[in-house]
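Exercise 3.2. Students should predict the tertiary structure of the chain below and write it as C-alpha cells, then compare their answer with the key that follows.

Predict this chain's 3D structure.
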Amino acid sequence: MGDRVYNVLFLCTGNSARSIMAEVILNKLGRERFRAYSAGSHPIGSVHPYAIEALQRLKLPTEGLRSKSWDEFAVPGAPLLDFVFTVCHKAAGESCPAWPGQPMTARWGVEDPASFVGPEEKKRELFRNTLLTLSRRIGSSCACRSRRSTDSHSRNESLPSEEADGWHSPHPSFEDATRDRIDFC
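Answer key:
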C-alpha cells in the first residue's frame, strides 16, 4: 500500500454511535496509514452519550466528535475517499452519493446499540460490546501496517485494555481478537 495515507469513511444512518466509534478506533490504530471519517445518511445531530462513555472508558479521544451528513463527503473539496464502510443495515440499503474517486466499498453490518429499548445498564453493555466488535474488525484491517512497520511503538499500537477500568467483557480482549490477523493489504 506504500507510504500514502488512505481516507476511510464509516457510514450509518444517524452517525451517533457505530460510525463515530469506528472513526475514533481507526484514527487511533491506523494513524500512520489511514485517516478515518464518519457520517450518516440522516444524522441525528449529536453523538450518543453512551458512545462517548464507551470511548472514554478505553481512554480514546472524544473531543470534536460530531454527527454529520454524508453529503459533506460528496462535494468538491471533500477528502478523496479510498474506502467506504457501511456499518448498519439501514444505510446499506440506501442510495449513496457518488463518492469522488470511486472508493472501494464494503458492508459491515453491526447491530445498533442506540436502538435497544430496555435497562440502561444493558444498553451501556451493548455500546461497549459494539466498540469491541468494531475494534476487532478494524484491528484486523490494520494488521498489515503493524507487521510492516519498523517502528516498535507503531508495531505494538493497540487500544488500552478494557479490563484496566474494571470493565470485563464476555468477548476476547482486543489483543486476543487481533493476535492471529490476516494480512490482506
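Discussion points: The chain has one domain: 6-178. The CA atoms of residues 47 and 181 lie 31 Å apart.
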